[in-house]
Amino acid sequence: xxxxxxxxxxxxxxxxxxxxxxxxxxxxxxxxxxxxxxxxxxxxxxxxxxxxxxxxxxxxxxxxxxxxxxxxxxxxxxxxx
Amino acid sequence: xxxxxxxxxxxxxxxxxxxxxxxxxxxxxxxxxxxxxxxxxxxxxxxxxxxxxxxxxxxxxxxxxxxxxxxxxxxxxxxxxxxxxxxxxxxxxxxxxxxxxxxxxxxxxxxxxxxxxxxxxxxxxxxxxxxxxxxxxxxxxxxxxxxxxxxxxxxxxxxxxxxxxxxxxxxxxxxxxxxxxxxxxxxxxxxxxxxxxxxxxxxxxxxxxxxxxxxxxxxxxxxxxxxxxxxxxxxxxxxxxxxxxxxxxxxxxxxxxxxxxxxxxxxxxxxxxxxxxxxxxxxxxxxxxxxxxxxxxxxxxxxxxxxxxxxxxxxxxxxxxxxxxxxxxxxxxxxxxxxxxxxxxxxxxxxxxxxxxxxxxxxxxxxxxxxxxxxxxxxxxxxxxxxxxxxxxxxxxxxxxxx
Lengths: 81, 403
Prior knowledge:
The complex is a heterodimer.
Chain A: E1 3-6, E2 10-13, E3 18-22, H1 33-42, E4 50-56, E5 64-70, E6 75-79
Antiparallel strand pairs in A: 1-2, 3-4, 4-5, 5-6
Chain B: H1 2-6, E1 20-26, H2 30-43, E2 48-51, E3 67-68, H3 75-89, H4 91-95, E4 102-103, E5 106-110, H5 113-129, E6 133-136, H6 138-144, E7 160-164, E8 168-169, H7 172-185, E9 189-191, E10 196-202, E11 205-211, E12 214-223, H8 229-235, E13 242-254, E14 262-265, E15 270-274, E16 279-286, H9 298-311, E17 320-331, E18 337-340, E19 346-350, H10 360-373
Parallel strand pairs in B: 1-2, 1-12, 2-9, 5-14, 12-19
Antiparallel strand pairs in B: 3-8, 4-8, 5-7, 6-7, 10-11, 11-12, 13-16, 13-17, 14-15, 15-16, 18-19
Helix pairs in contact in B: 2-7, 2-10, 3-10
């Protein structure tokens, strides 16, 4: 992955962006509130496949993007917004 | 070349896996093999199988930059890695296998006052905990490493460095082979090309593994998986604080020996040494975004080459021969996890990020003791999985040499 298509700035080199982490909900089957907090803070889904994550366009429009990326191949599937 | 191959230890390869073992270790990398070795030699547990999806040391054990050091930033880590370093120093004598262990000394260069403070703190902490690390000034550094440009190409001036005198390198596949040969000599079975596809459960307990070559029952299953460990742990219902990032490294063509030590810089996120073949081996940072792709990128290569040639201008004239990536399990606090999991019969050794190779002997010794006695040794006791729950995290990102 070398480029990212920013909805505002167009196709820009990846160096301009900062990775903002995996964006994931705590799974519904975890019901204990303390357990949900723990999961939210420490656990990563870390999938080998498509994941939803946040990227910040540091050297561009300085806005947050939501990106769907395939971690098996490190390629962008979709820039959501 | 024949001197090289003549000293290769012999490994006994069994045919088909049995239907049951006392201990099944998933992953034939350094940690899996050393755990098997110490189970057999220190605890007499020889009914052990190591299951490797590909060939032994095909993952990160064969992809790292082979640096062995103990100059970490927190007492728990220094004790553990210093112990590992000492086990490495005696490994050739213990196993009878040549691992091309070479004590070279590692210089950790500082380019700012802030970095100088960090290196001084590292020296004090190391000395207090038994690792040999001392500060050197620019003049002394230039004397010991004549190739270094103290102006850093005008951009990264060298203000000083910490010198970890016991820093060393060893041939990575030889380390894996030494442990594999030693373990197989004692009756441990190593099965290559045997991917584990699932875990056998009996209620909450893990009682074996499902493999491409049929189910195998086990008293204890240890996941020594590198890379896809999150998926493996999930099969046992264990959730891990681990992300998986690729890290890039490259070597140049072979050149005459002339670069003796290991040189590292936190600010440049680079580390350099010369291999026994004469290649200059350069390791760098991992990608900021997690991924399982082992594709190296030209952008990464360009950025590391730029930075490292500021510090070592002679590298400009060398040609890059080969580049590759390994996928590193980075734990949330940048310290390893060697632990029971809360699931009976299932243990993990993971979170080896970019610091796994140097920990192979001590990590395996610790896991073997944990499996054999049910109690962690003092070296691995702090590195439990439940430290995150107990709010006893071992934050040590500054020691990783990468970011």
